[in-house]
Amino acid sequence: MQLPFSIEQFFEIIRNYNGAVWPAQVPLTLLAVGAVALAWWGRAWSARAIWGTLAFLWAWTGVVYQLAFFTSINPAAYAFGALFLLGSAAFLWQAMRSSPLPFTPSRDAATGVGLALIAYALVVYPVWSTVGGHAYPDLPTFGLPCPTTIFTIGMLAMVRGGRSWPLFVAPVLWSMIGLQAAFLFGVVPDLGLGVAGLAGIALALRSRGRTSRVAHA
Question: What is the mean pLDDT of residues 53-64?
Answer without folding.
Answer: 98
